Amino acid sequence: MKTINKILSVFSLVALLTLTLATPALAFDGREGQIVVIKADEVISDDLYVSAQEFTLEGTVKGDLFVAGETITINGVVEGDLVAVGQSVVINGAVTHAVRVGAAAVRIGDAANIGGDLLVGGASLETQAGSVIDGDLLFGGGQALLEGNSTGDAMIATGALEIKGTIQGNVTAEVGDVSSAGAGPSMYMGNTGISVPSVQPGLTVSDNAKIGGSFTYTQNKDIDFPSGVVSGEVTRKEPVVTPAQPEPTTAQKAMTWSFELLRTMITLILFGLLLGWLVPSFMKALMDKIQTQPASSLGWGMVAYAAFFFALFFILTIMILGAIVFGIITLGGVSGTIFWLGFLLLFALIVGFVLVTAFLTKIVVAWQGGRWLLGRFNPALADHKIWPLVLGVIILALLVEIPFAGFLIGLTVLFVGLGTLWLWGRDLWQMRKMAA
To answer: Which residue of 58, 224, 258, 310 shows the fewest CB atoms closer than 10 Å?
Structure first.
């Protein structure tokens, strides 16, 4: 325990030093509500975080804009990056840097000017004539109608693509099979807040389109391109079809099941022997807890299981509140430190919980079960360092493979193992308090 205390003390000193030396970062502003409007004469000097059902930007954001809502309209200016998630996103203004959007319907209006890359994932994307994307265009979704001007490359994966505008770089398009295409997004998207264009399934390149580089598309048939539209080479690639895997035979299924069962047994036995060698007193204490308090272990295991998820929620809440509070009072360095410390703590908790539930709980219950069985038939082997573990693991691995009942057995083992660890930790804490 002295070693643990030393480690915790060093970690605390490092955290305090980080808080002391952290360089204050740019603060941010936060807005939320049913309807949020940034008026035309309003200037946000920091990054802006918005959560609203309906959001409209008429003014200026001098930092990055992060917004989540149902209807998002950008008529003003964002002098940084724009990250938007919603049902419909309309950009009519200017964004100095990159735009990343996830929405059902996205429209880049005729007066829009995007100074960086445009990355969109959604059912429908429309770039209207007059819009400018000064970077690469990346889209994955149901359909895309491109009438604007893009100065970079375009990489698109969709079921329906129509190009009427200008793409100065290369185009890479993967378009779905026309014969297997269903109804387009315009047929089933009726509540997006904006009109969704109707795009014919497959790939269509208009006479007015202009491709400055090469055009590579993936389709199951050749597409006729208007003369002079593509400056570079046009290349068609065949879609990659994954052959259907044959249904495994009964013998193959049996071999696979046997191999997985054997691998599970060997893994648990090896980990159990390793734990028994590294921390023998700890493992013996846990097995004694199961032997003397099996019912309490089961009940406290349920509590421990629920407490883990409550702890995750609590830490996440503290991270968000800490980031917001210190961000508002312009202590961005402290805000960032709280976030990363919370993130590391969440990661450690999740990894520890997975390891405990996947290995430790099964090993402890199986080992004690093997001791109990051998004690009934051959007491001399009950305290052996290997055979109780081997016997218990084999029996437990077979029991959890029983249809329907195996799931309940595995869940019971999980709760009993967690409860045993909980009781051991509680008793250790009480002993330390009494000693103090």
So the answer is: 224
Pick the closest to residue 163 from 210, 223, 198, 197 (CA basis): 210
CB 39, CB 345: distance < 8 Å: no
Quickly list DSSP for 14-83: HHHHHHHHPPPPP-EEEEEEEEEEE-TT-EE-SEEEEEEEEEEE-SEESS-EEEEEEEEEE-SEESS-EE
Looking at the structure, tell me whether residues 216 and 256 fall in a common domain.
no
Residues 176 and 317 reside in one and the same domain: no
Q: Are residues 229 and 316 in the same domain?
A: no
What b/e string do you get for 321-341 counting C-beta neighbours within 10 Å, with b at 16 or more?
Answer: ebbeebbeeebbbbbbbbbeb
In a domain, 232, yes or no: yes
Judge if 291 and 172 occupy the same domain.
no
Helical pair 332-355 and 294-328, crossing angle rounded to 10 deg:
160
103 and 230 assigned to the same domain: yes
CA distance 305 to 298: 11
Rounded distance between C-alpha atoms, residue 273 and residue 366, angstroms: 12
Boundary of a domain, candidates 214, 237, 260? 237
- 389, pLDDT greater than 80: yes
Q: Do the domain assignments include residue 104?
A: yes
Residue 187 has pLDDT above 70, yes or no: no
Instruction: State the residue range of the domain holding 122.
Output: 81-237
The one-letter amino acid at 233: E
Nearest to 209 by CA among 280, 283, 145: 145
Least confident of 72-86, 176-190, 227-241: 176-190
Q: How many domains does the chain have?
A: 2
In a domain, 45, yes or no: no
pLDDT exceeds cutoff 50 at 13: no
- pLDDT the model gives residue 20: 39
- The C-alpha atoms of residue 317 and residue 128 are separated, in whole angstroms, by 41
Tell me how far apart the alpha carbons of residues 131 and 88 are, in angstroms, rounded to a whole number.
18
Same domain (yes/no): 231, 255: no
| Contact of 203 with 218, CB cutoff 8 Å | no
Phi-psi region for residue 224, left (φ > 0), alpha (ψ -120 to 50) or beta? beta
Q: Are residues 293 and 369 in the same domain?
A: yes
| Strand 60-61 relative to strand 210-211, pairing | unpaired
Alpha carbon dihedral 426, 428, 431, 436, in 10-degree steps, equals: -100
Evaluate whether residue 69 is within a structural domain. no
Domain shared by 226 and 258, yes or no: no
